[in-house]
Write a structure and sequence with these properties.
By secondary structure, this protein is α/β, with parallel strands linked by helices. The chain has 14 helices and 15 strands. It is globular and about 75 Å long.
Length: about 425
C-alpha cells in the first residue's frame, strides 16, 4: 500500500450538501458524521461524535446505523476502559467498503489503481507500452484488461468499486470526448463509446462503475492535494511526461477554466520562433522540457529504453556528474522556470510541485526553475516561491482519479447509501 490522504474534516474539494434544506437534513448529517470519522486521528465513539458535531446522541446513533448498514464505516476493536462501564467502540472508515478505480492512458504506459475510503492505495499496476502506434480502440481494450484485473484484486480484498476516473494526456470535454491528445495522436476520440464494448469499465454489476474521463494533469493535482497535511490549498502541479501538463489548485479546488481545458503549460511558448511542436506551433515548453527533449539532449534518445527506465538512467548519470545529463537538465529546468514564472506572476501562487516524470529529476530541475522564478516573479524578492517534488510521483494521476471517486462518497454518502440493494 502507498499513500494515505489526510482527511481534514469534510474533504476540501467536495463540500457536503448544503445549505441545509428541509429534505436534505439527513444527507447533511450523514456527511458531517462521516467527515468527522474520516478526519479523526483515532476511532471516535458515538458520544465523541455527538460532542464534535453538536448533534444529539440519538441522531448520531441513527446516522451511524445507516453508515454501518451501508458498509461505509465499521466498529473498531473495543478499547478497554480503565474505569467502570462498557469498553467504548470507536468507528472507522470501512476497509472493505466502496473503493475508487483510477485509470490512466499515457503515451508510454497504462495504469490502474484502487483506492479505499481511507485513501489507501490497495492495488496499483502499470503496463509499459508505446501507445503511439496503437489505435485508440486497441489502447482502450488493453486498459479494459488492466481494469478487469484491478476489479478482481479489489474483490479479493472485499472492496466494491463505486466508480472510476480515467486520466488521459489531452483535452477532454464534458461528455468524455478526447478532443486532442497531441502526443498520442488522438483527435476527437469518443472514449465513452469505445469503452461501451468493455464490461469491466461500464457494467453496473458488482458496483462497477460509471466512468469519468479527465485530463491527467488535473487528476494528478487532485492526488497531490490530498496526499498529506503539508500540502497548501493553492499550488501549481506540473507533470512532466512526453507532454507537459499542469493542474492549477486554488483554495483547495481544481481550477478548470471556462471550458475545462486549463493547464496546457506544455504549449506555453518559451521561445516564440523556436523548435516546431506537435501542436503546430513553435517554441512550446515541451519541445525543450518534455521527456523526449531532455533525453535527446542528454544523449539517451536512441537508447530505446522505457521512459521510466530512461528517466532512472538519466538521474543516475546526473548523480554521477555526467556533463551531458547535467546540461540537459539545466536547460530543461530553465525553460520550465520561464513558463512557470509566467503562471506564478499571473495567479499569485506560492508553491510549484514537480510531478510525474519530473519528480525523480527534481534535484536537478529545481535549482534552474527556482533561479528563473526568483528572477522573473515580481513578488519573489520578499515572498519566495517554494518548488518541490510531488509526494505521489508518477502514480499521481491514477491515484488522484481513484481518490476523487471515494471523496465524492465521503462528501455525499447519501448517494452511495441509496444505491445499495
Ligand atoms: Zn505545442
Amino acid at each position: 500500500m502507498i499513500g494515505l490522504w489526510q482527511c481534514q474534516g469534510v474533504p476540501r474539494s467536495d463540500a457536503p450538501p448544503g445549505p441545509v434544506r428541509q429534505g436534505s437534513l439527513r444527507e447533511w448529517n450523514l456527511a458531517v458524521v462521516l467527515g468527522r470519522i474520516a478526519a479523526a486521528d483515532r476511532p471516535p465513539s458515538r458520544a465523541e461524535l455527538a460532542a464534535r458535531t453538536g448533534l444529539t446522541r440519538a441522531t448520531v446513533s441513527a446516522v451511524v446505523e445507516d453508515l454501518l448498514a451501508g458498509g461505509l464505516v465499521r466498529e473498531a476493536e473495543p478499547t478497554p476502559r480503565t474505569g467502570a462501564g462498557r469498553p467504548s467502540r470507536g468507528l472507522v472508515l470501512a476497509a472493505d467498503g466502496p473503493a475508487g478505480l483510477g485509470l490512466e492512458v499515457n503515451v508510454d504506459y497504462l495504469a490502474a489503481c484502487v483506492v479505499d475510503l481511507a485513501g489507501r492505495v490497495r492495488h496499483h499496476s502499470v503496463l509499459r507500452a508505446d501507445l503511439r502506434p496503437v489505435s485508440p480502440a486497441e489502447a482502450v481494450a488493453r486498459l479494459a484488461d488492466l481494469a478487469a484485473h484491478a476489479r478482481a484484486e479489489a474483490a479479493r480484498e472485499g472492496l466494491t468499486l463505486a466508480g472510476a476516473a480515467l486520466a488521459v494526456p489531452g483535452l477532454v470535454d464534458d461528455a468524455g470526448l478526447v478532443r486532442l491528445a497531441p502526443n498520442l495522436g488522438w483527435r476527437d476520440v469518443p472514449v465513452p463509446a469505445l469503452l461501451a464494448g468493455h464490461p469491466p469499465l461500464t457494467a453496473h454489476v458488482d458496483g462497477v462503475p460509471p466512468l469519468v474521463v479527465d485530463n491527467e494533469a488535473n487528476l494528478a493535482a487532485l492526488g497531490e492535494l490530498h496526499a498529506g497535511p503539508a500540502v497548501p490549498a493553492s499550488f501549481l502541479h506540473v507533470s512532466g511526461e512526453v507532454g507537459i501538463g499542469a493542474g492549477i489548485v486554488l483554495d483547495g479546488s481544481l481550477f478548470r477554466g471556462a471550458r475545462g481545458w486549463s493547464g496546457e503549460i506544455g504549449h506555453v511558448p518559451v521561445r516564440p520562433d523556436g523548435r516546431p511542436c506537435r501542436c503546430g506551433a513553435r517554441g512550446c515548453l515541451e519541445t525543450y522540457a518534455g521527456q523526449e527533449a531532455i533525453l535527446a539532449a542528454a544523449g539517451l534518445a536512441g537508447a530505446d529504453l522505457p521512459a521510466d527506465t530512461a528517466t532512472t538512467r538519466l538521474a543516475e548519470l546526473a548523480g554521477a556528474g555526467d556533463p551531458a545529463a547535467l546540461h540537459a537538465l539545466a536547460d530543461a529546468g530553465t525553460a520550465l522556470g520561464v513558463a512557470v514564472a509566467g503562471v506564478v506572476n499571473l495567479l499569485d501562487l506560492d508553491t510549484v510541485v514537480l510531478g510525474g516524470g519530473y519528480a525523480p529529476l527534481a534535484p536537478w530541475l529545481r535549482p534552474p526553475v527556482l533561479a528563473e522564478v526568483s528572477r522573473r516573479v515580481l513578488t519573489a524578492a520578499w515572498s519566495p516561491v517554494t518548488v518541490r517534488p510531488a509526494a505521489l510521483g508518477g502514480a499521481a494521476a491514477a491515484v488522484g482519479g481513484a481518490g476523487s471517486v471515494v471523496r465524492r462518497i465521503l462528501a455525499r454518502p447519501a448517494g452511495w447509501l441509496t444505491r445499495q440493494p
